[in-house]
Model the fold of this input.
Amino acid sequence: MNSWLMRKSLVVPIFAVTSLLLPVGGMAQAAAVRGDEARPTMRTQVVILGSGTPVADPERWGPAVAVVVNDRAYLVDCGPGVVRRAAAAVEKDGIAALKAPNLDIVFVTHLHSDHTLGYPDLIFSPWVLGRTAPLEAYGPHGLKKMTANIEKAWQEDIRVRRAGLEQANATGYKVNVHEIAPGIVYRDENVTVTAFPVKHGIWKEAYGYKFETKDRKIVLSGDTAPTDEVVKACDGCDVLLHEVYNPHGNELNDRHWKEYFRTFHTSPAELGDIARRAHPKLLVTYHQVLEGLPEEDLMEQIKKEYSGEWVSGQDLGVY
Ligand SMILES: [Zn+2]
Ligand SMILES: [Zn+2]
Done:
């Protein structure tokens, strides 16, 4: 089996739940997201743009997820390739909210490079492609400084595009940065977004996010060691996206790396405990640290630990 087919086959949930084979919900919604003449869906969708880690895995791009509500996409993190991955979701499922000029809001979990290398991409590419609204960026302290440095690094590009024949607009490359604290950080007619603190090693600030819309509650763990904050935020949520690592990796024989994983990430046993207490309707693993082993090895371990509905999240998977 070639790797593409292999990857596609893994999109199918372990515990075959017919409705999950559709993007979300029934046939009408499936038609809608494919853009077959039906009106846009009202149902909240979770689209994994990148389920990866720092590993340069061609099948798993940098961490980025979109929560799509009423034709607006709310991004969580911006790993490498985020704008092109969004374009891929437009092509695959007709999700117009993910067209580049429409990408105008992001919630950053923490400032690790794997989660932010696509930040300049998200600032500049949609602008070059016609976005006039500034990007609204929410995240930990330090995001302002990072943003200012990015703008400085690309200042000559901004000057040339604006002053030259490209006639780029004067607003779309700007960023309104909102450095946040735990609690409700954003609200509009579609969604209320709550940030909660998670435990990611020595990072002073790392967040998970809860999205509450009219029809669904979606929780993303971000990168974290096990924390009750996820259990509290989910509390029977519709979809819980949670990170996980494979403790069978060779690196784990090394005391230093074992300690790293114990304090920065979540093992299958710990994930099982969290999920049992959080009781999500659907658990989706993402940011799977595979440690060079086949995905099936990690999946087998999770299967032993958790008997609820779950699926190993894949790039461009819609949940
Ligand atoms: Zn990460
Ligand atoms: Zn991280």
Summary: The chain is about 30% helix and 20% strand. The chain has a mean pLDDT of 90. The first strand starts at residue 45 and ends at 50.
